[in-house]
Design a protein that fits this description.
The structure holds 2 protein chains of 2 kinds. Helices cover 93% and strands 0% of the residues of chain A. By secondary structure, chain A is mainly α. The longest helix of chain A has 131 residues. By secondary structure, chain B is mainly alpha-helical. Chain B has a 3-stranded antiparallel beta sheet with strand order 2-1-3. The chains are: A mainly alpha, B mainly alpha. At the A-B interface, helix 1 of A face strand 3, helix 4, helix 5, helix 6 and helix 8 of B.
Chain lengths: 156, 286
């Protein structure tokens, strides 16, 4: 075992390799690894965030769905009510119309009756006068008689 | 295939070498230095290498060590350059797995921020792992190649850098310097000396404190370097012994190699962990 200058040579080589490793090997490797770590962390964070977003979106969806359902129920209710209302209104209108028609018809009938009565009265008066003229043969005082017959006709 | 190549070389060598010589030859480094006559060149034989003294180099060990370090640097640099923060491909995934393994080990042990410690730990783990992994290469393959290419049948050529104490101690001494540097940087010179002199028994027992703390401090680089060296050296020695078995070596090689598959990453991991622990101790106030 003889110690010689090989020792010094090895020390110089050692110093050089350590220096080279420290200067040219370590920094880029560390940088690459750190960057990857950061990317992985970012990716995980993004995944977490996306998961949270999804959850939130699902919540919103279910909320909106619920709201829509409530609205639909409201609309159907309203429609039903409106339908009943329309039917009711129609019924009322029909009734009113019918009533009015009945009233009109009744008034017309009344009028017709009155007119017939008037006509009848006139005819009866003239018949009565004619009858009376025939009975008396000669007219006594036409004016007086007319008055009497008119009174007679009016009393009918 | 590689095993049989090793076997062939071994048989070729056996005619001219005894078993002891075979092992001795395999434990020699390709040493470059100044010989007794003052000429720079490669040493022939262990004695010539020893005579070269301190100013000589184990060319094979430094070559493999630097080459494997470059492989580590090139692979990691290419991945780091094209690293995307998107879905990583297969190889980037593997590199990132290593990266995160080292980073977790550092984070669990080292509290505080330090731009140096994680790249340091990564370099140590990968580089030591690669150097240890050379142990799996059949022991005769590269020596045989070296002999064939150089044409010198006596040439020494080893392939596992961590079986050279120069290599392991070179790293552990560097780490020792970092320990001293960070101790002084974080605690100041006074704080560092106080930690050596006034602990654990208080200022009155200063000599005893020094007697405990100084060896503790010095033992760190020594144990760090020698542990790695010892484990890998023993592993290689066993491979060499198995290579002497002749025809029966293959199954035994397989068993020992399988066992060594555990030792290789484990020793790299231990070296890295102890570095982190020592440096975290250096950076902490007591």
């Amino acid at each position: 075992m003889n110690i010689n200058a090989t020792l010094l040579g090895q020390m110089i080589a050692f110093a050089f390799f350590v220096w080279f490793c420290m200067r040219y090997v370590w920094p880029p490797l560390t940088a690459a690894l750190e960057e990857r770590q950061k990317r992985i962390a970012d990716g995980l964070e993004a995944a977490d965030k996306a998961g949270k977003d999804l959850e939130q979106a699902q919540e919103t969806i279910s909320e909106q769905l619920k709201e829509a359902k409530t609205q639909a129920v409201g609309i159907i209710d309203q429609a039903n009510r409106r339908a009943t209302q329309i039917v009711e209104e129609g019924k009322n209108q029909g009734k009113e119309e019918g009533q009015r028609m009945i009233t009109g018809a009744k008034a017309e009938i009344e009028q017709e009756i009155n007119r017939a009565k008037e006509h009848l009265r006139e005819q009866v008066a003239s018949i009565a006068i004619a009858g009376a003229e025939k009975i008396l043969e000669a007219s006594i005082d036409e004016a007086a008689h007319t008055k009497i017959t008119e009174k007679l006709a009016e009393s009918l | 295939m590689a095993e049989s190549a090793g076997e062939m070389a071994h048989e070729a060598v056996e005619h001219t070498q005894t078993q002891g010589e075979y092992i001795q030859h395999h434990l020699q480094f390709l040493t470059f230095g100044k010989d007794a006559e003052g000429h720079w060149g490669f040493a022939h034989g262990a004695d010539a290498a020893a005579e070269m003294g301190f100013w000589s180099f184990h060319v094979d060990m430094l070559g493999w060590s630097i080459g494997l370090g470059l492989i580590f640097i090139v692979i990691f640099r290419s991945v780091a350059k094209s690293a995307t923060s998107g879905v990583p491909g297969g190889f980037q995934n593997f590199i990132e797995w290593v990266f995160e393994f080292v980073e977790t080990s550092v984070k669990d042990t080292f509290h505080g921020t330090n731009a140096l410690i994680t790249p340091l730990a990564l370099t140590i783990f990968c580089w030591v792992f690669l150097m240890n992994a050379m142990d799996i290469v059949p022991v005769d393959l590269f020596p045989w190649l070296a002999q064939t290419i150089s044409g010198d049948p006596e040439i020494a050529f080893r392939v596992v850098p961590t079986t050279d104490p120069n290599i392991t101690m070179g790293m552990s001494l560097s780490i020792f310097l970092l320990i001293i540097f960070y101790s002084i940087k974080v605690k100041g010179v006074g704080g560092f000396l106080k930690e050596l002199a006034f602990q654990p028994f208080g200022p009155k027992m200063l000599p005893f404190n020094l007697l405990i703390e100084v060896p503790t401090l010095l033992a760190k680089p020594v144990s760090l370097g020698l542990r790695l060296y010892g484990n890998l050296y023993a592993g290689e020695l066993v491979f060499l012994l198995i290579a002497l078995f002749g025809a029966f070596q293959l199954p035994v090689h397989f068993i020992w190699a399988a066992f060594h598959l555990l030792v290789i990453p484990l020793q790299a991991f231990i070296f890295m962990m102890l570095t982190i622990v020592y440096l975290s101790q250096a950076c902490e106030h007591h």
